[in-house]
Structure formats: C-alpha cells, structure tokens
C-alpha cells in the first residue's frame, strides 16, 4: 500500500509518504505558511520515499478538530490531490486517531492554540487552554499523546478499506469540532 498522509491540524503537522514498509515524514517548518509549503513538502516526501503521484493508492488526511484554516488547507489539498489523481481520499479525525491509541468513552485531544477538545460519548466540547485549567480536577482527564507513528499505523489499517470501497471521487468533509469564529465584514456592519 502506497499513500500520502497529510496532517495540518496538530502541533505535529507533517506530511508522510508511505511506501509499503518505508515511511518518510517531512514536518512543516512554519505552521503559518502551510498552504504555501504543502506542495513543496509533498514533493520532498515523495522523492525521499522513492514514490511518484502516479503510483499512490490513496490520500489520507487528518480532518480535525483543530484550527479552522489549518483543517481547510489540509482537507482541500488532499481532496484536490485525490481528485486529480483519480484515487480515493480517506479522512481520519483526531478522535479516531486518539481512540486507536487509547480506546475509551472519554477522550481529550490537545490541538494547541486551537483549544482542547473533549469527547464524552457522542458529545464534543471545546475548551480554551485557560478554560480547561479552570475546570475542577475531577472533570479533567489525561490528554492522549499523539504521535505520527500511531497515525501511520491507523492509516495503513484503514487505507485498504478505502481502496476497496472506491467508486469514484468522494470528497472528505472537514470536522471543525465547533462553529468557526467568523466575524461580520465591516461593510455589512456599517449598513445595520
């Protein structure tokens, strides 16, 4: 199985090229230039793994939760890449990733500046770092430590299913975890 894995949502932010048993990971140098650096890092990862776009079986992307813009950049790039190559795209949420490491009904994922996301059953709550620190100790749970090796292992496990179910291009939908904080444009505010 040959695939590219794109993570723009976590502090680990990187692109990994997986060539059967060889994994090459290229981290983002600057998290604020992801949309600019993504194509260059993809080329570097493919070159180091001795792969080309034409031989990829699937594109895997972390769909969130996390920073609104980071998620949009990663998911849009993965969808476009998969569409252009005519291969399936597989989305993995941070909660799927964390559950693969530590299966539990309650999961906590720290997305850095984007906040801390807690899942209890099917309910997801977003906290800022400060809000989470104010919670009583009884309400807090340990953060699941995420690492790229576990993400690659999860993607390797799920990718054959995505390939088997491939019936044309089906885009991955981003998972923001909360409503985007979008303000009203200044022109619209003046008209009120």
Spell out the key features of this protein.
single chain; 192 residues; alpha/beta; Nucleotidyltransferase, domain 5; three-stranded antiparallel beta sheet
Description:
This protein is an alpha/beta fold and 192 residues long. The chain has a domain at 2-94 and 146-181: 2-Layer Sandwich (Nucleotidyltransferase, domain 5). Helices cover 36% and strands 23% of the residues. It contains six helices and eight strands; from the N terminus they run βββαβαβαβββααα. Strands 3-2-1-4-5 form a five-stranded mixed sheet, sandwiched between helices. The radius of gyration is 18 Å and the shape is globular. The model has no long low-confidence stretch (mean pLDDT 82).
Q: What is the name of the CATH architecture of the domain at 2-94 and 146-181?
A: 2-Layer Sandwich
Count of discrete alpha- or pi-helical segments spanning 4 or more residues: 6
Structural class: alpha/beta
Radius of gyration: 18 Å
Spell out the helices and strands N to C.
Answer: EEEHEHEHEEEHHH
Give, in spatial order, the strands making up the sheet with the most strands.
Answer: 3-2-1-4-5
The biggest beta sheet reads: 5 strands, mixed
CATH C-level of the domain at 2-94 and 146-181: Alpha Beta
Overall spatial form: globular
The overall pLDDT, averaged over residues, is: 82
